[in-house]
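Hey, can you fold this one?
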Amino acid sequence: MYDSEVAEIWDTIYRGRGRDYAAEAQGVARLIHERHPDAGSLLDVACGTGEHLRHFDDLFDHVEGLELSGDMIAAGRGRSPWLTMHQADMRSFDLDRRFDAITCLFSSIGHARTPAELDATLACFAAHLHPGGVVIVEPWWFPETFADGYVTGDVIHTDGRVIGRVSHSSREGAASRVSAHFTVADAEAGLRHFTEELIISLFTREQYEAAFRRAGGTVEYLDGGPSGRGLFVGVWR
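Sure. Predicted structure:
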């Protein structure tokens, strides 16, 4: 999952699709500071290549990232070597320190495969929070909002390269399968093609909210968010 070929072009694709990492980080930071005005430290879980983390670094006194894919971390360190990024699983990590805020964006929470794994993830978050800490989670689609058979595609022109991505999403029980094909045409390296298959859980809103509460937090759901899938915001008193 998210191997070196995908990691190398990940941010180029999503910037080309219109993602504004700086604005998204500022919006999330605003939600955190509305609930915890003195929040000075942040852990970004499933941080990918660290693009949100890089902007969080301008908004908090201390930030760290956590990511399962070593290739994503390597790509991020190549661009932002000053960032601290740990390779670990969001369901079972132990960093031996606490933070004022934890974020989990880009619908990465959907890689928890079962409600029990969702509970374990929120419990890990809770164990790494100071009292009054804030957790913001961007969910994947809910079962009733997921579009079975959805197809999409993009072509991005940048820096002597053309990158194409097409994908198809389908329902598989309580999860979705996202199949993506990538083609990269490079002026020097030529043409290459690779694929990626992801299984992303379709948790209900109630399952997310129950996991927050079982981990000891309050929770509210906000419509919108960076991808239109909303945000869950929890506070641990």
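The chain has a mean pLDDT of 96. Let me know if you want another pass with a different chain boundary.
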